[in-house]
Amino acid sequence: MRVAGLLVGCGAAVAATAVVFLSDDPQVLRVAVVAVAWACLGAAFAAGRRPEPVVPEGPDVAAVEAELRRAHEAELERETAVHRQAELELELQVRGEAEAAMRRELDGLRSELAGLRGDLTGLDALRTEVAAIGALRADLAELAGLRADVAEMAGLRADVGRLRAELTERHAGELHHAGEMHVERVVMRTQSVRSGREPLEPATAAAWHADVTRELGGWPRTPEAPAAVASATVAPATVAVPVVTPEPEPVARVLTPPPVPVDAGAPRRRRTDPPAPAEQLTVERPSVHAAAAAHGGYATPVPPAEYEAGAARLAAILAESGVTPGGRRRRYRE
């Protein structure tokens, strides 16, 4: 029936097409169009009708239906499992990416925190250094004081050098003076032995000259004898006496200064300690020979007559012995 309807419809359509191309009559053309329309409608009805399915008769219908249902459910379960697996994989992937991103951010934050901690430590060190600036200022003030002390030490060194030079000159002058005095004593003793030990006038305080410097230790100056008095003096008679050379007196006894009293209870001092007020060499100490202490220190002024008489006697003794008196060397402090 279906096939017949389709064939009728196809034939009507072909006939209507032929009439449209071959005929010019309007009435025929209208009939052909109506026929084609009805043919199409009949073909549509014929094609729309489906044959009813043939249901097999017997006991296997329920089993087949159950099998189909199970297959459908299994297919649904497989699709659901695949969908869930895809969802799980996607979830794991997204979670891993999120965790990696969070780890990177956390690592960056940790590094920044470590840098901030280092900066805080540096700030603490800076605070300590700033607090130490006050101590540095005190040290600088102490350095200024030390510089002043060093400048004072330089001045003290210059004073010590000057004192050493003066002491050296004084010691050399004392040695020279002691040598001259020793030579004069030997000459006078030799002359006294040759002349038979004539009695000499004792030397008194008035026989010493007043012009005695402190550097020479208090010994009197020997004046030079006038030429007229020396020529007019008559030499005494010479007595033949065996010459006995006296032993020279030790110079150490003359040059040995008196001992300086030392306090036994005073504490020991070091080289770095400042000098005590009593030990500062600001005042010159008198240097007097031990042998000159018996003459009573500095001599008193001598009258001119007595001075000329003593000078004439000494000049006569020196002229008899053939020794020319030498002038004293006097040193003056600048």
TrEMBL record:
Transmembrane annotation, as ranges: 28-47
InterPro entries registered for this protein in UniProt: DUF6779 (IPR046706)
Keywords: Membrane, Transmembrane, Transmembrane helix
One Pfam family recorded for the sequence: DUF6779
Region feature (Disordered): 251-298
Annotated DUF6779 domain residues: 29-123
Compositionally biased region (Low complexity): 289-298
Taxonomy, superkingdom: Bacteria
Protein name: DUF6779 domain-containing protein
